[in-house]
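The material for today's practical consists of a large collection of protein records. Read left to right, the backbone structure tokens trace the chain's path through space. An example says more than a description, so a record of this kind follows:
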Amino acid sequence: MPRAVNYSETMTEQQMTIKEIENQFESEWVLVADPQTNDALEVTRGTVICHSQDRDEVYRQAVALRPKCSAILYTGRMPEDTAIVLGTPVSIPKPV
């Protein structure tokens, strides 16, 4: 199973456009911090803090890193029979 690459400690706070993210992380799940959106709420740019071919690993990193504002993107093509479920954010308590 592919491991996620976590940039939170090694990457500079460099903003990337959505095209740059799609080109650099082809067919991967990408965790983007501080995403900027257009009027249609589509992510236009942000800071990549984690990416992987394994969606679950990116979700685990999102929980572990707890970015204040983030988006998870998939840069590949979704199969036609894929269902996408949207939900509201859930507050996750901080560990003590």
Q: What stands out?
A: The chain has one domain: 5-74. The helical segments are 18-24, 55-65.
